[in-house]
# Entry
Amino acid sequence: MVEGRQPTITKQRSISCSCGRTPIVAKGLCGSCYTMKRQDAEYYGGLREKVLQRDGHACRVCGKAGRGKKSIMVHHRVPGRSVLSLMISLCLGCHSRVHKLAVIDEADAPELLRILWREQHPQGTEQYALDYSTALIIHQTGSLFA
# Structure
């Protein structure tokens, strides 16, 4: 402090992340945003936001929209390759179906989900729809052992 000068007292303003959360952890971001930004650079080659914007922040399979940080995931069609054309936005449910289902039901799954599932499970089993309708059976009376 310089002799003869009065110290200036200032009030510190509350600083928040662009998402509105406090406290700030690093680089002007809250913990969640900082982690997402770090993961974007590390796992998505910095393309995560571009993929989400291209797909309108919605799942490409079911159309479910989500603006939350973790409501829509970016799926690598070729694991480990961060190329914009090989990445797609999926909701948590569809992403889980692509990765965790051992068998996919052909009748129930949308075409894009089946394509993505086949890419992840090249040796996987696909269940086709079965016809469970009953045929008209004519009941005849009589002995079974004639």
Strands lie at 72-76, 87-91, 103-105, 125-127. Residues 31-127 form one domain. The mean pLDDT is 76. The longest helix spans residues 31-43.
